[in-house]
Design brief:
Blueprint lengths: L4 E9 L17 H13 L2 E4 L1 H7 L13 E6 L16 E4 L1 H4 L2 H6 L4 E4 L5 H10 L4 E4 L3 H9 L5 E7 L25 E10 L2 E9 L2
Parallel strand pairs: 1-6, 1-7, 2-3, 2-6, 3-4, 4-5
Antiparallel strand pairs: 7-9, 8-9
């Protein structure tokens, strides 16, 4: 059985922000970045996304060439997502609590998604369950609070960051990880830069976690 691997893909501005004041990201990346995102998605078997990010942007999950892309996955602790999202066009997996899964809203969403009732909604359990279903190449596309949960437990193996040529200047906006405290032992968590490429006016980087 293959060990699961987790890749994070995010784009950020020159001042490290990953969303506009309204919570969206529309219009800040190029066609090249969107093509690169499709390449990362094509390699993955499952795509983990945050409810807030999906509700704000309502992104397309199919690849540009018409392929379906990786199976979408969402973790919902406090509430369930709106039922009109494109997310539900691709037989997604929705991890949520027993109370939400058994609610009327949860029963309705079970017609559009595989609703998994989980007592534990922490990242390690989610990765373990996805692996048991045969999904071992995992891609995480935020948002920042969701990213933080996986980084805090040192579960991320590869990090792709696209740097886009804008400065927002709002200190209240999050970066790729949004947490109330520093990650534990962050100085001991070594990352190796394996790619840094300028394409037109954007920088594409890839970092890999160096584990002992």
């Amino acid at each position: 059985m293959h060990e699961p691997t987790l890749t994070v893909n995010m784009a950020m501005t020159l001042d490290g922000k990953v969303m506009l004041p309204d919570g969206t990201w529309h219009g800040l990346t190029s066609a090249t970045d969107r093509k690169t995102m499709d390449e990362y998605r094509a390699r993955a078997q499952a795509l983990i996304v945050g409810r807030n990010s999906v509700e704000k942007d309502n992104p397309v999950f199919a690849l540009k060439d018409g392929r379906p892309g990786p199976r979408p996955v969402m973790i919902c602790r406090s509430r369930l997502p709106r039922p009109d999202l494109r997310f539900f066009q691709h037989e997604p997996i929705l991890y949520t609590s027993p109370a939400l899964a058994e609610s009327a809203e949860g029963h309705n969403l079970s017609k559009q998604a595989e609703v998994v009732c989980a007592v534990e909604l922490e990242p390690t359990s989610i990765i373990r369950d996805l692996s048991s279903r045969g999904y071992n190449r995992l891609l995480l596309e935020g948002g920042p609070a969701l990213n933080a949960a996986f980084f805090r437990l040192d579960l991320v193996d590869t990090l792709h960051i696209t740097i886009v040529p804008y400065i927002l200047g709002d200190s209240s906006l999050p970066g790729i990880v949004d947490s109330d405290s520093c990650l534990p032992d962050f100085k001991e968590r070594s990352w190796k830069l394996v790619r840094c490429e300028r394409i037109e006016n954007e920088i594409f980087t890839e970092y890999r976690r160096q584990r002992k």
